[in-house]
Design a protein that fits this description.
By secondary structure, the chain is an alpha+beta fold. Helices cover 33% and strands 23% of the residues. The longest helix has 39 residues.
Length: 772
C-alpha cells in the first residue's frame, strides 16, 4: 500500500474512534437528564414547577466503631492471661507475620521474664485517622511478683477490616523497649529461709550443714569394731537399741549393699566421725540443706515434728506458672506441708528482684525495674522440743496420733503422728532421697498423713463425756441418779445391745450412779440416756451438745485439718436412713453412729472440761519475729466459746473423770497407779469396722495448779490397736511423766525396757474392773 493510502487509513480509524467516544458522551448526558427528571417528578424541587431545578443531595454515611472498645478488650485479655483471645483480635497482616504459637510463646516469655501477676491500664487517648486506621495510647502498670510495679505508656495501632477494629501487633505494645531482638529477663536473689524454733528457742528447721550416713556392710571391721560402730550409731541416731541398726544390714552382710541410715547435723556427726571412720563400715556425705533436727533413722523418723513443721521441695510442675507470677524461681523450694506451707511467705522473705532488658545474646541493656530484698521472718512455735520428742517416741511403734495442749491457753506443746517421716529426704542433695521417698509413698500406713488434725475416727467412749453433759443439761437426769447397768440393753425394739463386759465374761456393773456410769464406762447407762432423751423430745440433744463441744467443725489451728462429722437430722450419712431415729441417737450416745472426730478436737474439749469450760482455739505459733528481733505477731489465748454447762454439772463431770484414774473399779486406775499427779481422764474403745481391731483412745487433763508448769490436756488415738485402757492409757501416762518428770519413768506392759522389746499383746491383769 502506498504511503498516502496508509495515512488515510490511520486517519479514518482515528475519526471512527472519535465518533464512538462522542456518541458515548452524548448518551451519558441524556441518561443523566432522564435520571434528574425522574427525581424531580418524585417531589424534590418540583415545588417550584421548574423542571430544570436539581433535587437536594442526600449524604449517606456509617460511623466507624470506637477503637477503644477492642483495645480495652485486648488489654483485659492480657490481664486474664488469655493469649489465644488476644491473638484473635490481631489484624490479618499481624497474624501472617506471627503464628498463634509464636505469639503465645512471646507472651509467656514476657510473663516469666517480668514475673507478671496482673496489669492495670487506663486508656488516655484514641485517634481515628481515617475509616480504616486508628491509634491509641494507654497508661499500663505491670505488677511483678519479683520487682514490684512497672509503669509505662503503651501505644498501639489499629486497622479496620469490615465492621470491627483489629490490633496491628508490635512487640512494643508489651513494653516500649521491647523491639524484636530484645526480651525481658528476671534475676532473683533469694535470702536464706527463716528458722522455725520451739518456744524456748531450740532450732527445729533451719539452714544448716547436714550429714547423710549409710553403711557398706563389706567394709565393717571385726566383731569388736562392729560393736563399737553400732554403739556410736545408736547414740548418734538416738535409736532405741543397736538392734534397730543391725536389722538394716544383717541380711546383706559381706556385700557392698548400700544401707541407708539417716541424717544428722554436721555438728553432731563430727562428735562421732573419728570413731566411725576408724572402725569402718560407715560412710557420710555432708551438704548444705534445710535441716530438720531430731535424731532418728530414716525414712520413718528423723525430724522432731515432721507433720507439724512440714517440709520444703521444688515447685510442682502444675503449679509453676502461678508461682512464677508471684516471683518464685522455677527451681526454688517452697513449703509443701505444715508450718512450712502455711507461713511460706514469712519464712521466704522478699527476694531481691530485678527485671532487665536484654539483647539477642542475653546481655543486660538496662534495668526496667528492681525491688530490694527483705529478710525473712523467724517463727517461734508453741512446741516444747523435749516434750515433742518424748511424745513422738511414746507412739513410735504404733499407727496413731497424740496431742498435748496447755490446758488453760490452747497452746500446742506437742503434736505427733505415727508413723512419722523424715522431711530431710525431700532435699535433692540428700543421697537417701530417692530410696526414702519411694518407701514413704508406697507405705500402706501413709506416714506423711498428720493423723492429729486430718485423721477422723469414731470417738468411742471418750464421747460419753459429751453424752453425760447432754443428759445433765436436759434436766432429765441427775449426776447421782441410779441405773441398773446390766450386760445387755433390750429397750430398743428389735435390737439387743451389749455392754463390753459381756465379751470378757465379767459380772455386770450393777446399780450405779451416772457419775459411776462414766468412770466405769457402762454402755447400757448411755444407751439408756440416748433413748430416754429422744423419747422425751430431746431428739437432737446429744448432737447439739457435741457441736457445742467443738465437734463437726474445724478448730481454727494454723495447720490443715478436717472438721469431722456429727450426724443429726440435717447432717447424716445416707446409711442412717431417711429419718433421724432413736437408733441413731442411741448409737451416737456411745461415740459411734458414724460420728468422726480428730485427736486434736478431743484434746481441745477435754482441756475445756479441765479449765472451767472455755473452748480455746488451739494455736501452734507463739510469735513471729523479724530478722531484727521485732515481734510482728504474738500468741494470745483465744476463747472461741463456753461449754453450755452449769458449774454444778461441770463439776460432776470432772469428778467422774477423776474417778476414771482413781477408782479401783474404774477403767484406767491400774494404768495410773503410782503416778502421784492430779489427773482426770477417760478411756475409749471405738469400733473401727468389721474384722478389724478397735481404735484405742485415752484422753486426760491434769490439775496440778503449779506455777512452774502449766496444766495440760492430752489425747492419744491408736488405730486398730485394741482397748483404750490397755494401749492408749499407758501412752498418755508416759507423756504426762515426760512433761512433769522430764523423762518417761514406767515402762509399758509390753516392754522389757523403755522403748525396747515391744511384744504383740500386753499382759492382762484379772483384777475386778475394766479395760475398756
Amino acid at each position: 500500500m502506498p504511503m498516502d493510502e496508509q495515512i488515510m487509513v490511520i486517519v479514518g480509524s482515528a475519526k471512527r474512534q472519535l465518533r464512538v467516544r462522542n456518541a458515548r458522551i452524548v448518551g451519558l448526558m441524556i441518561l443523566g437528564i432522564a435520571v434528574l427528571s425522574a427525581c424531580g417528578s418524585g417531589g424534590g424541587s418540583s415545588e417550584t414547577g421548574d423542571p430544570s431545578a436539581l433535587p437536594t443531595p442526600i449524604v449517606l454515611s456509617t460511623s466507624a466503631p470506637d477503637p477503644a472498645a477492642v483495645s480495652e478488650e485486648f488489654l483485659s485479655l492480657w490481664d486474664e492471661g488469655d493469649y489465644s483471645g488476644m491473638y484473635s483480635l490481631l489484624d490479618a497482616p499481624s497474624r501472617e507475620r506471627t503464628s498463634e504459637t509464636k505469639f503465645i510463646e512471646l507472651l509467656e516469655d514476657f510473663r516469666s521474664g517480668t514475673a507478671l501477676s496482673s496489669i492495670d491500664y487506663d486508656i488516655v487517648s484514641t485517634q481515628i485517622h481515617n475509616p480504616y486506621k486508628a491509634s491509641l495510647a494507654a497508661n499500663v502498670t505491670l505488677h511483678s511478683g519479683a520487682a514490684g510495679e512497672i509503669p509505662y505508656l503503651t501505644e498501639m495501632d489499629l486497622t479496620r477490616d469490615g465492621a470491627d477494629w483489629q490490633v496491628s501487633w508490635e512487640n512494643t505494645i508489651l513494653h516500649p523497649t521491647l523491639t524484636d531482638d530484645k526480651r525481658m529477663r528476671l534475676q532473683v536473689i533469694l535470702p536464706e529461709r527463716g528458722t522455725i524454733y520451739d518456744q524456748y528457742g531450740t532450732s527445729m528447721a533451719a539452714p544448716a550443714e547436714a550429714a547423710s550416713l549409710w553403711i557398706v556392710p563389706n567394709q565393717i571391721g571385726d566383731e569388736e569394731a562392729e560393736d563399737l560402730m553400732l554403739s556410736r550409731l545408736r547414740q548418734l541416731f538416738d535409736a532405741a537399741s543397736t538392734d534397730d541398726i543391725l536389722f538394716r544390714y544383717n541380711t546383706v552382710r559381706g556385700t557392698d549393699f548400700y544401707t541407708a541410715l539417716g541424717e544428722v547435723s554436721q555438728e553432731e556427726y563430727l562428735k562421732y566421725s573419728g570413731v566411725l571412720d576408724a572402725v569402718g563400715g560407715v560412710q557420710a556425705r555432708t551438704y548444705d540443706s534445710r535441716y530438720y533436727s531430731g535424731d532418728g533413722l530414716a525414712p520413718y523418723s528423723g525430724s522432731n515434728a515432721p507433720h507439724t513443721l512440714g517440709y520444703v521441695s521444688w515447685i510442682p510442675e502444675e503449679d509453676l506458672a502461678s508461682y512464677q507470677e508471684r516471683g518464685y524461681l522455677q527451681d526454688e523450694f517452697i513449703g509443701r506441708m505444715g508450718l512450712e506451707r502455711v507461713y511460706d511467705a514469712e519464712l521466704r522473705g522478699v527476694p531481691e528482684g530485678t527485671v532487665y532488658l536484654t539483647d539477642a545474646d542475653g546481655n543486660n541493656l538496662e534495668v526496667i525495674a528492681r525491688r530490694e530484698a527483705e529478710a525473712p521472718n523467724d517463727i517461734y512455735t508453741t512446741l516444747d522440743a523435749d516434750l515433742q520428742k518424748i511424745t513422738q517416741e511414746a507412739i513410735e511403734n504404733f499407727v496413731g496420733a497424740a496431742v498435748v495442749l496447755e490446758r488453760d491457753t490452747g497452746k500446742v506443746l506437742a503434736m505427733a503422728s505415727a508413723p512419722g517421716f523424715d522431711p530431710n529426704l525431700f532435699d535433692p542433695e540428700n543421697p537417701h532421697g530417692a530410696w526414702g521417698l519411694g518407701e514413704l509413698i508406697s507405705s500402706p500406713t501413709i506416714p506423711y498423713l498428720n493423723r492429729a488434725t486430718l485423721g477422723v475416727y469414731p470417738a468411742g467412749s471418750v464421747f460419753k463425756i459429751i453424752t453425760m453433759a447432754a443428759a445433765l443439761e436436759s434436766g432429765e437426769f441427775e449426776a447421782d441418779e441410779i441405773y441398773d447397768c446390766g450386760l445387755e440393753f433390750y429397750d430398743l425394739p428389735g435390737v439387743v445391745l451389749d455392754d463390753w463386759r459381756k465379751e470378757k465374761e465379767w459380772d455386770p456393773a450393777g446399780e450405779i450412779t451416772l457419775q459411776d456410769g462414766l468412770s466405769l464406762s457402762c454402755n447400757p447407762w448411755f444407751y439408756h440416756i440416748g433413748l430416754e432423751l429422744f423419747n422425751q423430745g430431746h431428739t437432737t440433744a446429744i448432737p447439739d451438745m457435741a457441736k457445742a463441744f467443738g465437734l463437726g467443725q474445724e478448730t481454727g489451728i494454723e495447720l490443715e485439718e478436717e472438721a469431722g462429722l456429727i450426724p443429726d437430722p440435717e447432717n447424716k450419712p445416707d446409711i442412717l436412713g431417711e429419718e433421724w431415729s432413736e437408733y441413731d441417737h442411741v448409737g451416737l450416745a456411745i461415740g459411734q453412729s458414724y460420728m468422726q472426730a480428730t485427736p486434736l478436737q478431743v484434746a481441745r474439749y477435754v482441756a475445756a472440761i479441765g479449765n472451767g469450760g472455755s473452748l480455746l482455739r488451739p494455736q501452734i505459733v507463739e510469735r513471729i519475729e523479724t530478722a531484727d528481733g521485732e515481734v510482728i505477731q504474738q500468741f494470745e489465748p483465744e476463747v472461741q466459746s463456753q461449754l453450755p454447762l452449769s458449774a454444778e454439772n461441770l463439776q460432776a463431770i470432772q469428778e467422774a473423770m477423776v474417778n476414771v484414774v482413781e477408782d479401783p473399779k474404774a477403767t484406767a486406775q491400774r494404768e495410773f497407779r503410782g503416778l502421784n499427779l492430779n489427773v482426770a481422764g477417760k478411756t475409749g474403745t471405738a469400733t473401727s469396722g468389721v474384722g478389724t481391731e478397735s481404735h484405742a483412745w485415752f484422753t486426760a487433763y491434769t490439775f496440778e495448779e503449779r506455777e512452774d508448769l502449766p496444766d495440760i490436756a492430752v489425747a492419744v488415738l491408736l488405730e486398730n490397736q485394741g482397748e483404750g485402757s490397755d494401749w492408749a492409757a499407758p501412752v498418755v501416762r508416759r507423756i504426762i511423766e515426760g512433761y512433769f518428770r522430764g523423762r518417761p519413768i514406767l515402762r509399758y506392759p509390753w516392754e522389757s525396757q523403755i522403748r525396747i522389746d515391744r511384744v504383740e499383746e500386753p499382759e492382762e491383769e484379772t483384777i475386778e474392773g475394766a479395760t475398756e
